[in-house]
Structure formats: C-alpha cells, structure tokens
Amino acid sequence: DVAEVSGVPPWVADHLQEEGIESLYPPQAEAVEAGVADGDSLVASIPTASGKTLIAQLAMLSAVERGGKALYIVPLRALASEKREEFSAFEAHGVSIGVSTGNYDESGEWLSGKDIIVATSEKVDSLVRNGAPWVNELDCVVSDEVHLVNDPNRGPTLEVTLAKLRRINPSLQVVALSATVGNAEVMAEWLDAALVDSAWRPIELKTGVQYGQALHFGDGSQRELRVGSNEKPTEAIVRDTLAEGGSTLVFVNSRRNAEGAAKRLANTSRDGLDDEERERLAELAEEIRGVSDTETSEDLANCVEEGAAFHHAGCSSQHRSIVEDAFRDRLIKVVCATPTLAAGVNTPSRRVVVRDWRRYSGEAGGMQPLSVLEVHQMMGRAGRPGRDPYGEALLLANSHDELDELLDRYVWADPEPVESKLAREPSMRTHLLATVASGFADSREALLEFLDQTLYATQYRHGSDGGDNLERIVETTLEYLERNGFVDRGETIEATNLGHTVSRLYLDPMSAAEIIDGLEAGGTPTAMGLYHLVSRTPDMYELYLRSGDREEYTMLAYERESTFLGEMPSEFEEGRFDDWLSALKTARMLEDWASEIDESEIAERYGVGPGDIRGKVDTAEWLLGAAESLASELGLDSVRAIAEARTRVKHGVREELIDLAGVRGVGRKRARRLHDAGIETRAELREAEKAVVLAALRGREKTAENVLEAAGHRDPDMDGIEPDATAVPDRD
Ligand code: ADP
Predict the structure, then answer these.
(1) For residue 276, how many other CB atoms are within 10 A of its CB?
(2) DSSP H helices in 293-385
(3) What is the reported pLDDT for 717?
(4) Pick from 257, 253, 205: nearest CA to 379
(5) 688 with 66: CB under 8 angstroms?
(6) How far apart are CA 224 and CA 210, in angstroms?
(7) CA 513 to CA 519: how far, in whole Å?
(8) 160 CA → ligand 1 middle, Å
(9) How many angstroms separate the CA atoms of 625 and 614, rounded?
C-alpha cells in the first residue's frame, strides 16, 4: 500500500491515490524495501512502462522531506519539459521545481532556490564546469535511461557527470533508472547501489513477427491476419486493430518516413472514425494549424483530420503534446513515430509495430540493425494497463528467412549488456581536460583516482594481460593535451588559459587544435574558409560522400584551394583527402545556406532533410562562436571576419543582409524583400513608413507592425565580439 511508504512527505499517499495509484507495483515495492525512500542508492532495471518514474519520485520527495535537494537527469531536452509537467503537481504541496535546459551560458544560480531540478546530462556537465553553486547542495540524483551510458556520443558525459557529482558529495544518493539490459549488476557495482532487476510488467506483452497472412508469436502461437492484395502489412495491422477498437503505434527509422507513413495510414484510420470523432479531430486539426503555419504543421493537421499523426524530434513541442494527448484519449488511432517516442514519453497503445528494424548510419556507412535494447523499448509501449487485455508488438518480415532472423534477433533475444564508451579518444580528451580545468584533479594519481569512479574503470580498468588500461589511456591523453598547449605539467597538472577556454566552450580539444592551426595559418579568412575549417573538426558530423561526389569535390577543392585555412592534404593520402572533401561538401552546404539558396533546393542538392540542414547550421554557429573566442584569446585579428561568417550562417543570409536579418521576426526571406524595396539597414527600417514595409513584406499588417517594433530594439548579434560561450548545440 502506498500509505505504508515511510520517509516521503505525508501528502504523497493521498496524492498518488488521486492519480489512481493505490498500491505499489512489485518492482516499486522492491525498490522501497531496498531503501530508495531512505536515501539509499539504487539501480532499477525494469521494463518500459513498469513504473520507474514513481521510484524516482519517492526518492526525490524523501530527499526533499529530509530538507535536501534533488536533481533529475533526463537524456533528451524534449523530455525535460515532460518531466517538469509531471512533477509540477508537487508544487501545490510546496515543493519547487526548476528546469535547466537552455543552450546558453547561465550559471543557473536561480536554481539554488529549487527543491527539484531537471536537466540534461550535457547541461549538468556544463554547469559543473562553470561552477554552479547548487551542484554542491545535492542530496539525491536520479539518472533516467541510464543504459544510455552505452551511447558512444552521449554516454561518456553521463558517466563522468555522475562520477563528478559523487565526488562532490560522497554520500550522494544515486537512483539510476534503466531499461532491462544484459548486465544491470555491473551498473549497480559501479554506483555502489542496490539492484532491482525485474522483468515484471503491469500488462502481458505478446511479441512476434508478421509474415504473409499470419502473426507468428514468440511463444509459438499464431494468428491469422488478412492482408489485402493491394495493402501493406502495416495497413492491415492498423485496420485489424481498429476493428477491435484499439490503436497502433508504428515505429519507423526517419522523420521523413514517419510523415510518409502517417499520410498513407490516414487512408486506413479514416474508415474507423464515427461522426463525433471526425468533428473533434477537425477541431484538433485547427488547433494544430494555429501553432504555426509551416508545411509540417499543415501536413500534420491533414493527417489528424483522418485520425492519424506523425511524431518526431523535428515536430514542435506543442504539436507533439497535442498528438500525445489525443492518442492517449484514443481519438487519434495511429501514430507513426521515430524512436524518440519510445524513450520516456508515456503513450501506450494496443499494438506496436516496429516497421523498420534497420537505420541509416553515416559512421557505419549504411543501414545498421537496431539493438535489441532499442527494439524491446519500442515494443514495451504496447498494452494499456486497465484498458487492454494485453499488448501486442510486431516486427514485419518479407520472407521466410527474415521471419526466422527477426524471431532470433529480437523476439527471443536478451538485450545487450551496456558497455562504457569513455575510452574513445574524443571523450577521453574532452573529459580529462574538463576534469583538470574544473579542479577535480591536479595530478596523474588524482586523475586516476577520479576516473576509478567511472563505469569504464568498473568494466575495463584491468586488462587480461594484467596491465592498467586506465593508466595507459590517461598517459597518452595527457601527452596530447600538453603537446597542444591545453595543460601544463610540472609539479602538478594544470589547465592553461587556453585549456580553460576550450573546456568552458565545451569543445573537443582536437577541434580547438584544428581551429587554432587554421586561424594561425594567417590572412583574413573568407566565410568559405571558415566553414571548411569548422566542418573538418571532430565536433561536426560531416556530410557523407556519395558515389560521384569524389570527382566533383576534388575539382572544387583545387578551384577553391586558396580559400582553405591550412594546407590541403595530397590526393595520395586517401583517408585524409576524403575527410577534406567531406568537409568541403559540408562547407559548401553552409555557404549555399548563407547565400540565401532555398532550403528545399539545398535539401535536394545534398540529399538531406530540413532537420539535417538545421543541425549543421546550429553546429556551425556554435563552432564559429567558439572560434571567435579562441581567436580573441590568442589575440588574432580574424575575430571580426569570424563573427560575420557566424552571423551569416545563423540567419542564412548574404553579407548585406546581416543587419536586417538580426531583427526579430525578420529572417532571411523577409530581409531580402525589405532590401529589394530599398530598406537596407535596421536604422532605415526603424525610420521606414509602415505602408512601405507592408508592401515589401507582402504580409499581414500585424507582421509589419511587429517587425517595425522589433527594429527599435538593440541587435545583440553584431554588437560585441564576445560569443555565447557555452552555446552547446542541441544533439537530440
Ligand atoms: P516507465 O517505467 O516507462 O518510466 P512510467 O513510470 O511512465 O513507466 O509508468 C507508466 C504508467 O504506469 C504511468 O501512467 C503511471 O502513472 C502508471 N503507474 C506507475 N506506477 C503505478 C502503480 N503502482 N499503480 C498504478 N499505476 C501505476
């Protein structure tokens, strides 16, 4: 019974009962027995939708009850606001909640007054580096989706951040929530925590594979599924589920596929709607159109009118929550989603279809199968407790061989063990420098002692040859950092001024070294030279060279040779030369963007989606901001040129529009129209007649008024040369 949990504030039991939670689920009861409400550390490895959040809440609320402060680390920015909303009910009971997700530098001092703070691991890492005072006051830290320590890009940050927080407060309570993984006991050992490792689910889950006219379940049972001759399997499943009065969640591998599948499935969901539902969906579609007047918004509204929707990280958060709510209310019958929805958002559904089990990976150069862990997490979204008799999750097979493969690979398979990726060079470089720069260690021994608190040390410190892996990696990395002027090694190890800057900027030290080399090559850099420079750093995911690209970009490389900062590698150094060309392709995309080429044309020319363009542009803006800081730190006179290149890429405009495009509400297209109408600067805009502005913008009166009003404000962009120091791009 929830009333029997001691340690939490007295109002919690009533509050939970209001939410329909009368008694604890078995894994939750185990967690309480293990002391999660008494300040003890815990690793909870339990299936999706089995009530992990409540375990976290009990831990945090009991910490607050003892007069302490708690931090909830989310894996994605999109989830921070979800959690905030979930926890906001506590505010009525005097528990204050703060969210720190901003991209920009903030010491986060205002968070000192909050009882519960929600943040991403990157944000926490950056706040620790910048010395946020409240970090020292934490009593309880929850790490959601902690199995992501396995992720090569984001895992190491989470691992090191937890190690730092435990270092700051050795008696810190750590509650790590994980999907079911192959080695939860290793995580518990790492965090000195008790372990709840359970396969219990609130509702039965049947998993299987659709092939031909049948569903083949993992337990050996089969059921008929009639697939019409001109029908796709997913359509047949959605139709079949609708006939039972249920809804379907379809997972696909890209944003574009999510939109495409939703449009097609709308033809199926349409047939399952009654008049009242049609009416409510029409209202919902209007609400969606009201959020923004983009093409995505219109497409989504059109699908929703028919009872279907798509959901991916490229949708606005308002769109996403409208879709989630209507799906939970069973008004929307089918949602096509990228795996972001599997991670954390609570949207159970009668059936789940994992349509794509492979995903494109630039790094691996092709389609790669998803991990068992990921597929199981998606499948776990099937079945709504109290509403469905059981949940059903299906993969789709095209052949008998594929049927066997999918049963083996996913249905009968156990999830992989998580493995620390901290030893990857970029992670080691970045985190060693940060550890030294923020004063956590000032000698090799202290570094080793600190790193001994990571999962990497738990798993791999001692190699099979008896050698100390950690010692070896630390030594090579320190040598690298010293050689590039980021640390000084004398009696003690200390970060140089440059090293401090690099750490504060959140750069991979190798990116900083590459940028410094390029800038010191001399001369006033061109925008293209700078775009190429930042595109060849390890912090930029370059565009992939397709067949035929090599020739085209080799020619371009010779044509533009004089614009490059630093020396072009020879064609005979194949690896390096190809990297140079990939960076050139990326740089030219940025140049196109900064030359006002239409987004749709860029998308076609480079074979990328609007989200990819945005991602590259954001990363370039961040790296150019970092380059500005490095240039001023080193006293180079390229600062102004870098600021200009950054502003151009930020707004996607040519030089002459920089001033105008910085006005809020103007943007690249409107800036060009104003310029064509003879309004060339912000000052001229401020003085301009409303009628002229209105005619130039060909828009609504309100738009012209907003723009005119905004022109009266100061432009923060080109004002100073000091960039936003910790503008870390969103890596969702
Ligand atoms: P996950 O393990 O994926 O984080 P959640 O914590 O989101 O799962 O829980 C899934 C759903 O189960 C939520 O809607 C939650 O309110 C509900 N729930 C959690 N614990 C209980 C309980 N003890 N009794 C009834 N419902 C519960």
Answers:
(1) 9
(2) 295-305, 317-328, 372-379
(3) 42
(4) 205
(5) no
(6) 10
(7) 10
(8) 29
(9) 16
Ligand 1 centroid distance, CA of 39 (Å): 22
Element spanning 124, H or E? helix 121-129
* Lining residues, ligand 1, CB within 6 Å: 21, 24-25, 28, 48-54, 346
Backbone angles phi, psi at 14, to 5 degrees: -60, -45
315-318: which pairs have CB atoms within 8 A and are 24 or more residues apart? 316/291, 316/292, 317/78, 317/81, 318/291
Give the C-alpha separation, 272 to 268, whole Å: 8
What distance in Å separates the CA atoms of residue 207 and residue 226, rounded to the nearest whole number?
A: 18
Ligand 1 mean position, distance from CA 138 (Å) = 26
- Between the alpha carbon of residue 91 and those of residues 10, 17, 99, 461, the distances in Å are 15, 17, 14, 44
pLDDT at 697: 85
> Is there a contact between 59 and 69 (Cβ–Cβ < 8 Å)?
no
Instruction: Provide the CB-side half-sphere exposure for 337 (13 A, CA).
Output: 26
Compute the distance from residue 21 Cα to the ligand 1 centre, in Å: 9
pTM of the predicted model, to two decimals? 0.81
Could you tell me the two tokens for 400?
Answer: 């008998």
Q: Can you tell me the distance from the alpha carbon of 727 to that of 618, in angstroms, rounded to the nearest whole number?
A: 10
Which pLDDT band holds residue 341 (cuts at 50, 70, 90)? Answer: low
Q: Which of 50, 177, 180 should be mutated for ligand 1, with most atoms under 8 A from CB? A: 50
Asked if residue 495 has pLDDT above 90, the reply is yes
- The DSSP code for 638 is T
Return the C-alpha torsion angle 626, 632, 638, 644, nearest 10: 50
Residue 612 CB partners (closer than 8 Å, separation 6+): none
Q: Please spell the DSSP secondary structure of 398-460, one letter per residue.
A: SSHHHHHHHIIIIISPPPPPP---TTSHHHHHHHHHHHHHTTS-SSHHHHHHHHTTSHHHHHH
- Helix, strand or coil, per DSSP, at residue 487: strand
Rounded Cα distance between 716 and 732, Å, is 27
Spatial distance between the Cα atoms of 675 and 666, rounded to a whole number of angstroms? 11
- Measured in whole angstroms, the distance separating CA 354 from the mean position of its chain's CA atoms is 21
Nearest to 696 by CA among 668, 666, 676: 676
Looking at the DSSP bridge assignments, the partners of residue 208 are 217, 394
On whether the CB atoms of residues 238 and 248 are closer than 8 A, the answer is yes
461-478 in b/e form (b: 16+ CB < 10 A) is: beeeeeeebbeebbeebb
Binned at pLDDT 50, 70 and 90, residue 102 comes out as: low
Residues counted in the chain: 732
With CA atoms as reference, report the closest residue to 339 among 363, 370, 303, 369.
370
Compute the distance between CA of residue 246 and CA of residue 558 in angstroms, rounded to an integer: 60
- Rounded alpha-carbon distances, angstroms, from residue 179 to 347, 416, 648: 16, 11, 43
What SS3 state is found at 561? helix
- CA 28 vs. chain centroid, Å, equals 28
pLDDT score of 336: 95
> CA nearest 624: which of 509, 504, 529?
529
Task: Count the Cβ atoms, other than its own, within 10 Å of residue 222.
Answer: 12
Q: Which two tokens stand for residue 472?
A: 């070896």
- Nearest partner of 633 among 517, 499, 532, 481, judged by Cα: 499
Cβ neighbour number for residue 655 with a 10 Å cutoff = 13
- Phi-psi map region of 39: left, alpha, beta (phi>0 left; psi -120 to 50 alpha): left
What distance in angstroms lies between residue 50's CA and the mean position of ligand 1's atoms?
Answer: 6
Bridge partners for 642 per DSSP: none
Count the helices and strands in the chain (H runs, E runs).
31, 19
Alpha carbons 405 and 603: distance in angstroms, whole number: 35
Cα(489)–Cα(491) distance, integer angstroms: 7
Mutation pick for ligand 1 pocket among 52, 54, 86, 177 (CB with most ligand atoms within 8 Å): 54
Contact, 661 vs 708, CB < 8 A? no
Structure confidence by residue, pLDDT tens digits, 153-162? 889 999 999 9
